[in-house]
Amino acid sequence: MISFSAPGKIHLLGEHAVVYGKPAVLAAIDLRVHVKISPSRHADLNKESDSLKKIIEPIVKKELKIKKIPPYDLKILSEIPVGSGLGSSAAVSSAYIAAILSFLNVKWNLELVNNLAYEAEKVFHGNPSGADNFVVVYGGVVWFHKQTEPVKLSSQIKQFMLIDSGKPVESTKEMVEKVRIKLQESRIEVQKIFDDQERLVKELVVALKDGNQNQLISIIRQGEKNLESLGVVGRKAQNIIRLVEKTGGVAKISGAGGVKSGSGMLLCYHPHPKTLLSFTKTHYLPTLSIALGEKGLLLCR
Ligand code: PMV
Prior knowledge:
This protein is α+β, with helices and mostly antiparallel strands.
C-alpha cells in the first residue's frame, strides 16, 4: 500500500489580488488529508472518488504519455473541511497525484507533483493563481507571487483559530469570476484595493517575523475591510467578524469567500485565545484551533 498526506492551507492575506499578480501570504495548517492506494485485481467501485479520478488520472496519463493505469483501490481520509477555503481540493489532488506516481513506480519530486496539482486546480477552479497547490505541496508559511519564485517565510506567530461562517454556496471559480467582473466595471477602485492588499501583505511579512501581535491585528483588520469592499464577504461572516473585533480580536475570510450564504472558515487571531473561545461558545459558533507552518506533502510509511 502507498500512502501520502498533504495539509490544508489558509490565506493569511492576498487572496483574489494574487490572481492579478499581487503577492499573498499563505500557510500550511495542521489539518491533513490522507490518500492510500493499493493494487487491486478489479477496477475500484468506490463511486465517491469517481469524479476525482476522472480529473486526476487524465492529468497523470498525459504527463507520463501512457494510455492505461492498472486497477487500484483508492482510500481518502480527510480532516480538511471541503469547500471552506482551506485548500481541500489542492491537498487531495497533491496527495493523490504523488500516490499514483509512486504506484506507477515513477520517480516523483515535489516540483512534478506541484505542477500536476496545478493542472488539477485549473479543472477545479478555472483560473487559479497556483498558490494553494504550492503551499500544500511545500508546506510552511509562504510568500506567493505568480511571476516570481515563492519564498518560505519565518513566523513567530503560529496559533490561530478558525470559526465556521458556513459553507459558501458559490464555488471558488464563481467568486473569482465575480471579482473579475467588478474589476472590469470599477477598474480604479478595485486596483486601489489590490494595491492596498499588496502593502498590507508586505507589512505582514515583517509582523510575522518579529512576532508583532499589534501589527498583525491591525493588518488583518484592514485586509478584511478590503475584502469586504471587494464584495467577497457575506453578511453572516461580516456580523461574526464585527463581534470578534469587539472582543479585541480580528477575523477575516480565508480564500475565495462567499456572499449568498456562508463565507467559509474565518481565520481569527486573538491576543487572549480564551476570550475568543468563550465568545464562540456563547454564540454557538463551531471553532477549530490551528497551527500554521506545518509540513507539506509527506510519504507515510
Ligand atoms: O478558497 P480557496 O481555498 O479555493 O482559495 C482561493 C484563493 C483565490 O485567491 C480566490 C483564488 C486563487 O486561485 O488564488
